[in-house]
């Protein structure tokens, strides 16, 4: 919903809500929580020092009447890239991290779970845009919280059982 | 009078944006980074107001609105937090040659409220295409719902009052407060009336549903009592209208144990029953003869919570089905033990395919005094809910 940007003088970390994205420059960390069947996708240009994180809910905009593009993998990722380019990122230098897409619930009315379809959509969009995937932590049946640190170029993932993993 | 749910969404969006601007003003004035949690709107009765504000003592700034949007706006924070905010403002203030510190603190809080509410209201006038005038700010201190203007409490007694609430939380400091907006009932209902009949809910049914939610929660609380032998009571029960993406934030990111059900029928939707870990263990242990010796949350607790969840959910939706004169079924329980926001993620994902906003019926049940708590979140499909409510025979008011 919101497009936010912060500069080198800004806070040390920025929170990203569901269906939102944030673009930062410099060492500002990007944080999002509540990544269940949703995906947190990080894009980072280490050369120009521009990072972005989007928290998407669903695979494709076609599935909804919604106008908030940041809710979907297929419309959200291009929008994030555009905002990052405006902040000085170069498209061909972008690398990606994909986190989430778990299957927390199963209902009889489901075909493939939202989590699975989100992961597939992210793979598809990133390969179409020729963006290298630097790391993933996807699937399973647990929720995640994640933090991207531009300085170390890593994503740290926390799960409910207090395990922490860095990719 | 009918309410168009898309219009309600539009106003909710204006309030969220307003709250963001109010947060920005605070950052500029006091150098505190604030995060806007969620903005919700609900039509509340006097009882709900009393429950929502009970046992709390507030400091606030109150400001009247006139013109294109009439009503009252209140910036309120709990009294214990007032000192913290005053300190921050004093630090930021350059001119300190006032008579006494408390006068200065009061006037700086009032000025802060004035600026924040101004930011909050900014976008509304342009949306409505008319001017909104603000009356001078007033510093208030009160216990419970008395922090709200008298007119609003009177209106809540008569026909309910629309209550917009935005929660603001400090990113790095322990500071949080709420911005309330209570538009004048008749004018606001006019503003909410749209033209597309499929998205409309008769406004008097909104309060009917509130009572329904209460019954559902009452049933569910009764079931916990019966199964566990523990004392239970419904603490708060409210029908809120929130952006879907705000639902996980409302639940919070603590660890929860619970069950998620899919509802089918009219309306379809989801029902989520959550216990904090300690409450889950207490409840599960009380359900077993001789108690449970289980360490942590294992299969015994899982079985107990599933069984209890099943019975609670049946009780909850039976109340709805009776009043709506429809039939509603629920799926088998999906057990969850995870972070609250993550549990809600697939639920909002599912609903997000059809809608941007959600009616959330949010009930808190106290178990064994204030020892334990259970939260029930019901999220019906909004169009189906509108349809079911509209189809009810006319009531005499």
3D architecture notes:
- The complex is a heterodimer of chains A (167) and B (397).
- Chain A has one domain: 60s Ribosomal Protein L30, Chain: A, CATH 3.30.1330.
- Helix content of chain A is 17%, strand content 37%.
- By secondary structure, chain A is of the alpha/beta class.
- In chain A, the strands form 2 sheets. A 6-stranded mixed sheet of chain A has the order 1-3-6-5-7-8, covered by helices on one side. Chain A has a 5-stranded mixed sheet with strand order 2-4-9-10-11, with no helix packed on it.
- The two termini of chain B are 12 Å apart.
- Chains A and B meet through strand 4 of A and strand 11, strand 14 and helix 11 of B.
- Chain B: Keywords: Chemotaxis, Hydrolase.
- Chain B: GO terms for molecular function: hydrolase activity.
Approximate helicity band of chain B: 40-55%
The CATH topology label of the largest domain in chain B is Chemotaxis protein chec
Distance between the termini of chain B: 12 Å
Largest interface: A-B, 38 and 38 residues
Q: What is the makeup of the main sheet of chain A?
A: 6 strands, mixed
In spatial order, strands of the major sheet of chain A run 1-3-6-5-7-8
Topology:
The complex is a heterodimer of chains A (167) and B (397).
Chain A lengths: L2 E4 L6 E3 L5 E5 L3 E7 L3 E7 L4 E7 L16 H14 L8 E6 L13 H15 L3 E7 L5 E6 L4 E6 L4 E3 L1
Parallel strand pairs in A: 1-3, 2-4, 7-8
Antiparallel strand pairs in A: 3-6, 4-9, 5-6, 5-7, 9-10, 10-11
Chain B lengths: L1 E3 H26 L3 E11 L1 H8 L3 E11 L3 E8 H14 L8 H28 L3 E3 L3 E6 L6 H9 L2 E10 L5 E8 L1 H8 L7 E3 H26 L3 E12 L3 H5 L3 E11 L3 E8 H11 L11 H26 L3 E3 L3 E6 H12 L5 E11 L4 E9 L1 H9 L7
Antiparallel strand pairs in B: 1-9, 2-7, 3-4, 3-5, 3-6, 4-8, 7-8, 10-15, 11-12, 11-13, 11-14, 12-16, 15-16
Helix pairs in contact in B: 1-4, 3-4, 7-10, 9-10
């Amino acid at each position: 919903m919101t497009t936010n940007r912060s500069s080198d003088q800004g806070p040390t970390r920025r929170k990203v809500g569901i269906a939102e994205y944030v673009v930062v420059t410099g060492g500002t960390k990007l944080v999002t929580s509540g990544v269940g069947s949703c995906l947190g996708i990080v894009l980072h240009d280490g050369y120009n020092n521009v990072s972005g994180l989007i928290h998407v809910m669903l695979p494709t905009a076609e599935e909804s009447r919604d106008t908030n593009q940041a809710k979907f993998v297929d419309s959200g990722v291009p929008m994030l890239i555009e905002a990052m380019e405006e902040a000085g990122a170069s498209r061909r230098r972008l690398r990606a991290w994909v986190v989430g897409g778990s299957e927390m619930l199963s209902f009889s009315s489901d075909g493939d779970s939202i989590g699975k379809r989100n992961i597939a959509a992210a793979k598809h969009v990133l390969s179409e845009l020729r963006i290298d995937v630097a790391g993933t932590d996807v699937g399973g049946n647990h929720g995640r919280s994640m933090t991207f640190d531009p300085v170390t170029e890593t994503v740290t993932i926390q799960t409910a059982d207090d395990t922490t993993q860095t990719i | 009078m009918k309410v168009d749910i898309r219009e309600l969404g539009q106003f909710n969006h204006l309030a969220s944006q307003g709250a963001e601007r109010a947060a920005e003003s605070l950052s500029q004035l006091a150098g505190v980074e604030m995060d806007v949690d969620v903005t919700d709107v609900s039509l509340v009765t006097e009882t709900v107001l009393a429950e929502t504000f009970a046992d709390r003592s507030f400091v606030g700034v109150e400001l009247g609105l006139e013109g294109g949007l009439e009503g009252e706006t209140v910036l309120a924070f709990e009294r214990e937090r007032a000192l913290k905010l005053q300190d921050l403002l004093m630090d930021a203030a350059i001119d300190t040659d006032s008579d006494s510190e408390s006068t200065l603190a009061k006037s700086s809080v009032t000025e802060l409220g004035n600026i924040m509410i101004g930011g909050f209201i900014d976008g509304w006038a342009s949306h409505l295409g008319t001017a909104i005038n603000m009356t001078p700010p007033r510093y208030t201190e009160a216990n419970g719902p008395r922090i709200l203007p008298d007119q609003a409490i009177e209106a809540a007694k008569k026909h309910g009052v629309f209550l917009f609430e935005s929660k603001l939380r400090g990113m790095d400091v322990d500071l949080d407060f709420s911005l309330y907006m209570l538009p004048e009932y008749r004018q606001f209902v006019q503003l909410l009336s749209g033209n597309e009949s499929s998205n409309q809910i008769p406004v008097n049914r909104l309060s009917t549903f509130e009572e329904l939610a209460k019954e559902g929660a009452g049933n569910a609380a009764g079931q916990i009592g019966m199964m566990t032998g523990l004392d239970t009571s419904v603490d708060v029960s409210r029908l809120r209208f929130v952006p879907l993406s705000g639902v996980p934030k409302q639940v919070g990111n603590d660890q929860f144990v619970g069950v998620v059900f899919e509802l089918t029928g009219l309306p379809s939707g989801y029902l989520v029953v959550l216990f904090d870990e300690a409450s889950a263990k207490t409840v599960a242990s009380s359900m077993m003869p001789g108690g449970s010796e289980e360490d942590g949350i294992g299969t015994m607790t899982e079985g107990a919570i599933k069984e209890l969840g099943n019975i609670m959910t049946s009780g909850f939706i039976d109340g709805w089905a009776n009043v709506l004169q429809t039939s509603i079924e629920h799926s088998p329980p999906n057990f969850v033990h995870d972070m609250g926001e993550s549990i809600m993620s697939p639920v909002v994902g599912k609903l997000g395919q059809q809608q941007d906003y959600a009616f959330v019926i949010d009930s808190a049940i106290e178990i064994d005094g204030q020892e334990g708590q259970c939260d029930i979140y019901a999220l019906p499909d909004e169009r189906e809910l509108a349809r079911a409510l509209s189809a009810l025979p006319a009531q005499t008011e």
